[in-house]
C-alpha cells in the first residue's frame, strides 16, 4: 500500500458530526452522536442533505479523531453512534467500525442498502429507494425497514421490500421492524402512510420528529 492509499484507509470524508436526538424510526428520542459521511450516488429528489452528495468537497478526517469525539459524546450522554450520509456504504466501513469500537458505544447504520456491504453494526436501518433497490445482504441484515411515502406506489414498494426482507431471513430469524415515514411537507404521503398503518398492524408510523422540534 502506497502512502496515499494508507492515508485514505485511515480517513473518511465527513460532512458533519453532531450530538443530538435520533429523530426517526425505532430509536426516536434517544441521545445519539451522528457522523454524516460525504458521497452519495443514489440521488433522491426529496433528499434534505443534498450537500452531502459530492465526496471531494468534504474534508477527510482521521478515524482516531472520530473515535475521540465519540468518547467525548459518550461522556456527555450519547447512547449510541449513527453512521449516516450521504450513503455510508459507498465507503469501506470496516476500519471505521473497528476503530470506533474502542469508544464502547453501539454503532447504528442508516443506509439505502446500495454498495458493497462492510462494517459491523448493532442496529441497521434500511431505507430502500425504488430507483436503486437494496442488495440482498442489506435486506437480510437490517433490523429496521423504513420506507419514505409520497404516493401510492411507495406503499406497494414498501410491501415488496418487507416481503423481500423476510425472504432473505434464515429459518426462525425474525423480520425487521416495519415503518412508513411520510415525506416531509407531503400531505398526500402523510394521509397514505397513516391510513396504511391503521389498516396494517404489522407496520408503524415514523415521523421526522427532529424537524418538528427544530433540532438537528
Short structural description:
With 216 residues, the protein is of the alpha/beta class.
Description:
The protein is an alpha/beta fold and 216 residues long. It has helices at 3-9, 63-76, 94-100, 136-141, 152-168, 187-199, 209-213; strands at 11-21, 31-37, 60-62, 80-84, 107-111, 123-126, 144-149, 177-182, 203-205. The model is unreliable at 1-7 (pLDDT under 50).
Provide tags for this entry.
216 residues, alpha/beta, TIM Barrel, nine-stranded mixed sheet, 9 strands, 23% strand, disordered N terminus
- Main β-sheet, spatial strand arrangement: 3-1-2-4-5-6-7-8-9
The level 1 CATH classification is: Alpha Beta
Major β-sheet annotation: 9 strands, mixed
Classify the secondary structure makeup into a structural class.
alpha/beta
- Count of separate DSSP helical elements: 7
Distance between the termini: 39 Å
Which helices and strands appear, and what pairs or packs with what?
Blueprint: H1 3-9, E1 11-21, E2 31-37, E3 60-62, H2 63-76, E4 80-84, H3 94-100, E5 107-111, E6 123-126, H4 136-141, E7 144-149, H5 152-168, E8 177-182, H6 187-199, E9 203-205, H7 209-213
Parallel strand pairs: 2-4, 4-5, 5-6, 6-7, 7-8, 8-9
Antiparallel strand pairs: 1-2, 1-3
Amino acid at each position: 500500500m502506497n502512502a496515499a492509499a494508507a492515508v485514505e484507509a485511515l480517513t473518511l470524508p465527513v460532512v458533519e458530526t453532531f450530538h443530538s436526538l435520533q429523530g426517526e424510526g425505532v430509536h426516536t428520542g434517544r441521545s445519539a452522536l451522528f457522523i454524516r459521511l460525504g458521497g452519495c450516488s443514489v440521488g433522491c429528489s426529496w433528499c434534505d442533505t443534498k450537500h452531502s452528495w459530492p465526496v471531494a468537497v468534504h474534508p477527510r478526517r482521521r478515524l482516531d479523531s472520530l473515535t475521540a469525539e465519540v468518547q467525548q459524546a459518550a461522556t456527555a450522554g450519547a447512547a449510541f453512534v449513527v453512521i449516516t450520509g450521504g450513503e455510508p456504504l459507498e465507503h469501506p466501513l470496516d476500519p471505521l467500525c473497528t476503530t470506533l469500537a474502542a469508544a464502547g458505544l453501539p454503532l447504528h447504520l442508516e443506509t439505502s442498502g446500495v454498495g458493497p456491504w462492510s462494517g459491523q453494526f448493532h442496529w441497521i436501518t434500511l431505507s430502500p429507494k425504488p430507483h436503486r433497490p437494496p442488495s440482498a445482504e442489506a435486506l437480510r441484515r437490517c433490523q429496521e425497514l423504513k420506507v419514505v411515502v409520497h404516493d401510492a406506489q411507495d406503499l406497494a414498494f414498501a410491501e415488496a421490500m418487507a416481503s423481500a426482507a423476510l425472504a432473505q431471513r434464515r429459518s426462525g430469524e425474525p423480520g425487521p421492524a416495519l415503518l412508513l415515514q411520510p415525506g416531509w411537507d407531503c400531505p398526500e404521503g402523510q394521509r397514505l402512510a397513516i391510513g396504511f398503518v391503521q389498516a396494517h398492524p404489522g407496520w408503524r408510523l415514523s415521523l421526522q420528529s427532529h424537524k418538528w422540534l427544530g433540532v438537528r
